Amino acid sequence: MRLLFAEDEEDLNRILSLRLKEEGYSVDSCLNGRDALDYLEMAPYDGAILDVMMPGLDGFSLLKKIREKGIQTPVLFLTARDSIEDKVKGLDLGAADYLVKPFSLEELLARVRALTRSATGAASSLLTAGDLTLDTATHQVTRAGNTIELSAKEYALLEYLMSQKEKVLSREQIEDHIWNFDYEGGTNVVDVYISYLRRKIDFGHELKLIRTVRGAGYRLSDAPQH
Question: What HEC string does the chain produce?
Answer without folding.
Answer: CEEEEECCCHHHHHHHHHHHHHCCCEEEEECCHHHHHHHHHHCCCCEEEEECCCCCCCHHHHHHHHHHCCCCCCEEEEECCCCHHHHHHHHHHCCCEEEECCCCHHHHHHHHHHHHHHHHCCCCCEEEECCEEEECCCCCEEECCEECCCCHHHHHHHHHHHHCCCCCECHHHHHHHHCCCCCCCCCCHHHHHHHHHHHHHCCCCCCCCEEEECCCEEEECCCCCC
